[in-house]
């Protein structure tokens, strides 16, 4: 009886907040007075969530601009636009820029131009031709930036390139020089040829005899240009013992020579397979273009390679050629 009395006394004079017991279904406004409580409304999520405040881009993504277009066709005399790789003042490799609108550069093996320096991003920059034939470079938000003629360019901003422009990716010691830009009008902008012509003409004040002799000399230099494809097999003692196929090349120089000789034996029976075998076996980045190096003239390749290339007739294939890069098999195509 005493317990019952105590319970009634507590309930009458010290009412409990029933929200503690039943959640949000009921509530008390004041002591001793209870009223029904409407459950708290659950707001449904909006049908269309608000857009993000900033556009999120995947790192290293390159979107081809709508104005991109393959470069205009080149003539046999001029050859395609080229990107020369220069180290310590020497051209060590050349990449023809022809047949497509853009070339992606970086360390990723799927890029058009594969590079290996640690400061270069996987997708670093892109070379893009405009519809009017002009060439631009776009830095794809790379970590260490891209420089043109010593000036770092803004990311995601097309920067025009001209004849002789020097490009540097990240902190790499190698630079890349553009040559042979062809506009839609068919004019070829070759700064080094203009300089040679001015020198041969004796400068602006050259006499008529000097000018008459300079023109045949200029034509003869164009005739000296050749076009070649090659297969390069590197070895552990090569200048760069790495390639798109292997991060570290361990074969010996003799093994590289034997591999080239084996390929030479196969091609003697069917030289039309040169491009196919270059795509499969070459350690040079030109493998992506079936070994094609485009047109080049005297002084643009290492001495041993140049001597072998200029000693070939069109359609003729060399034997094994040694250089600091490795062992080459060269096919002259034009």
Gross morphology is: elongated
Strand neighbour order, sheet with most strands: 4-3-13-12-9-10
SSE-based structural type: alpha+beta
Main β-sheet description: 6 strands, antiparallel
Question: How would you spell out the order of helices and strands?
Answer: HHEEEEEEEEEEEEEEEHHEHHEHEE
The helix content is 10-25%
Rg over alpha carbons: 35 Å
Termini separation (Å)?
118 Å
Number of helices: 7
Low-confidence stretches: 17-41, 45-59, 184-223
Total beta strand runs: 19
Strand content: 25-35%
Provide an overview of this structure.
This protein has 334 residues and is α+β, with helices and mostly antiparallel strands. The chain has helices spanning 2-13, 19-22, 191-200, 208-223, 253-269, 274-281, 303-310; strands spanning 26-30, 33-36, 81-87, 90-97, 102-106, 113-114, 125-129, 135-139, 146-148, 151-152, 159-161, 166-169, 175-179, 181-182, 188-189, 226-233, 292-296, 321-323, 326-332. The strands form five sheets. It has a six-stranded antiparallel sheet, with no helix packed on it. A hairpin with a 2-residue loop joins strand 18 (321-323) and strand 19. Helix 3 packs antiparallel against helix 4. Mean pLDDT is 74; it is low at 17-41, 45-59 and 184-223.
List the helices and strands and how they pair.
Elements: H1 2-13, H2 19-22, E1 26-30, E2 33-36, E3 81-87, E4 90-97, E5 102-106, E6 113-114, E7 125-129, E8 135-139, E9 146-148, E10 151-152, E11 159-161, E12 166-169, E13 175-179, E14 181-182, E15 188-189, H3 191-200, H4 208-223, E16 226-233, H5 253-269, H6 274-281, E17 292-296, H7 303-310, E18 321-323, E19 326-332
Parallel strand pairs: 5-6
Antiparallel strand pairs: 1-2, 3-4, 3-13, 5-7, 7-8, 8-11, 9-10, 9-12, 12-13, 14-15, 16-17, 16-19, 18-19
Helix pairs in contact: 3-4
């Amino acid at each position: 009886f005493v317990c019952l009395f105590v319970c009634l006394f507590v309930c009458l004079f010290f009412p409990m907040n029933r929200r503690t017991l039943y959640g949000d279904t009921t509530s008390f406004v004041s002591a001793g007075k209870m009223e029904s409580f409407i459950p708290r409304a659950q707001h449904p999520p909006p049908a269309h969530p608000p857009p993000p405040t900033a556009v999120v881009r995947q790192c290293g993504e390159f979107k081809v601009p709508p104005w991109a277009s393959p470069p205009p066709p080149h003539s046999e005399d001029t050859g395609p636009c080229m990107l020369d790789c220069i180290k310590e003042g020497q051209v060590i490799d050349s990449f023809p820029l022809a047949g497509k609108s853009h070339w992606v550069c970086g360390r990723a093996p799927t890029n058009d131009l594969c590079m290996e320096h640690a400061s270069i991003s996987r997708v670093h920059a892109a070379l893009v031709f405009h519809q009017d034939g002009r060439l631009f470079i776009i830095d794809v938000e790379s970590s260490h930036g891209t420089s043109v003629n010593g000036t770092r360019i803004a990311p995601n901003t097309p920067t025009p390139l001209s004849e002789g422009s020097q490009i540097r990716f990240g902190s790499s010691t190698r630079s890349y020089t553009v040559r042979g830009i062809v506009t839609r009008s068919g004019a070829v902008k070759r700064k080094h040829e203009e300089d040679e012509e001015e020198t041969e003409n004796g400068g602006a004040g050259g006499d008529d005899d000097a000018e008459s002799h300079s023109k045949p000399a200029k034509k003869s230099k164009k005739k000296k240009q050749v076009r070649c494809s090659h297969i390069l097999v590197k070895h552990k003692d090569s200048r760069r013992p790495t390639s798109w196929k292997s991060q570290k090349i361990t074969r010996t120089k003799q093994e590289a020579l034997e591999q080239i000789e084996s390929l030479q034996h196969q091609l003697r029976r069917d030289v039309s397979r040169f491009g196919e075998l270059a795509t499969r076996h070459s350690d040079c980045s030109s493998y992506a273009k079936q070994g094609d190096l485009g047109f080049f003239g005297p002084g643009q390749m290492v001495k041993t390679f140049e001597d072998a290339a200029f000693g070939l007739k069109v359609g003729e294939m060399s034997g094994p050629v040694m250089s600091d890069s490795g062992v080459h098999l060269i096919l002259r195509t034009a």
